[in-house]
Predict the structure of Carboxymuconolactone decarboxylase-like domain-containing protein.
Amino acid sequence: MFEDWKHQTAHTKQSFAELGKKYPKMLQAYGALNAAATEGNVLDEKTRELIALAVAVTTRCESCLSVHAAAAVKAGATEEEVASALATAISLNAGAAYTYSLRVLEAFNQQK
């Protein structure tokens, strides 16, 4: 499926701003979360964006992946770095499916 990701990013930011105007306390709270997450600058911007992209994959958030892909480019991430972060997301999703499969079998067997 083809997406115009630059348009998606602009639309997401515009929608986010509009919602923030209607619900400023929510926007302030979201801003406080972001400020807390970046406090101390332990991780550089590029690393934070690579993590954000991996999380966007695991949460299946298209708006997140659009905005954070643009931010990763701006932060100087390479395609190889993005691919490595995505490989980690893929691995964790597979691991989560595997461990939850064990839970399913446990639940199934307890129902007998």
About this structure: Residues 9 and 66 are 5 Å apart (CA to CA).
